[in-house]
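Consider the subject:
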Amino acid sequence: MSSFVSAGHHLKDSGAVATHKGITYKEADLARDLRDRVIKHLKAAGVTIIQDQDKETLGEYLARIQPGNASVVVEFHFDAASSPLASGTTALVGSDADKNDRSFAKELAETVALALGIRNRGVIDETQSHRGRLGLMREQGIVALLEVGFITNEQDVQKYLANVECLAKLLAVVIKKYDDLIK
């Protein structure tokens, strides 16, 4: 089957925005860059990838893709908070998540925390998110949404930027592991 990798935001939806030391960061830009880097490593490892298109909304992406039970589905985001002190990575799973979903999400969050040296906030159920229910979680397969770090925390952003290529390689390893698991 295929792995489905998306950036979570499109060209007309910047997601969260934060400015640190005069530089403005957009969630969509950071997530697309990470998605592209991860996909490069997955393709090099022989994994078949289906990705979101930068111009399509989440609804359009979800309507287009057809993941089956033998698929890995992951979406990258960056969290935001009113406090610039909020920090760390979080993985989200559906309210109907099984052990593979939870294990995948746990490994994603652990990988980010170790690669970036930031707090691992763990795995939460989509009902604990700000939205309460996430469209991505209705897809079949092993599914997780990854909040890489807080775009509103300058240290999270700087650690991400300094380690993005290493992080992309490590995330690709985790995604491939689960892709291989369900083949």
Notes: The radius of gyration is 15 Å. The chain has a mean pLDDT of 91. The helical segments are 27-44, 58-64, 99-116, 154-181.
